[in-house]
Amino acid sequence: MLTMYSTPWCGYCHRLKSQFDREGIGYEVVDIEQDPAAAEFVMSVNGGNQTVPTIRIVPADGGAEIVMTNPSIVQVKAALAGAGVAG
Q1: What's the rounded Cα separation, in Å, for the pair 17 and 11?
Q2: What is the pLDDT of residue 63?
Q3: Where are the domains of the chain?
Q4: Among 5, 30, 35, 82, which residue's CB has the most CB atoms within a 10 Å radius?
Q5: How far is CA 25 from each of CA 33, 44, 87, rounded to the nearest angstrom?
Q6: In this structure, what is the dihedral angle of CA atoms 69, 72, 74, 80, given to the nearest 10 degrees?
Q7: Mean pLDDT rounded to a whole number for the chain
Q8: Domain 2-83 belongs to what topology?
Q9: Kind of pairing, strands 54-57 and 2-6?
Q10: Please, are residues 32 and 56 in contact by the beta-carbon 8 Å criterion?
C-alpha cells in the first residue's frame, strides 16, 4: 500500500499525485493538517519537519516499509518494484 502524506497547498504533492494518476499507481492521501497522528509520523521521519510529500510504502507481505521524502515518480516506481508492490 502506498500512502502520500500531503497538504492541500503543496505544489510538489499535486504534481506527484498527477504523475501517480497518469501512471496508474494507486495511493491514499492523508492531509497532515487534518490528521495530527499523520503530522507526527511525518515529523518523526523528517527530522522534526512537516515535509511533504512524504511517501510510505508498506508491502503486503509484511516486509520492511519504505519511507521517502519528496521523491520523483521514477524513485517511487523503483521502490514499489523493489518492495514487490503493484502500482
Answers
A1: 10
A2: 83
A3: 2-83
A4: 5
A5: 24, 26, 4
A6: 30
A7: 94
A8: Glutaredoxin (3.40.30)
A9: antiparallel
A10: no
DSSP states of 27-70: -EEEETTT-HHHHHHHHHHTTT---S-EEEE--TTS---EEEES
Full-model pTM:
0.92
Residue 12 contacts residue 69 (beta carbons within 8 Å): no
In this prediction, residue 87 has a pLDDT band, given cuts at 50, 70 and 90, of low
Residue 1 pLDDT exceeds 90: no
Rounded Cα distance between 48 and 69, Å, is: 13
* CA quadruple 75, 1, 20, 68: dihedral, nearest 10: -30
Band the pLDDT of 10: cuts 50, 70, 90. very high
Q: What digits encode the pLDDT tens for the residues 20-57? A: 999 999 999 999 999 999 999 999 999 999 999 999 99
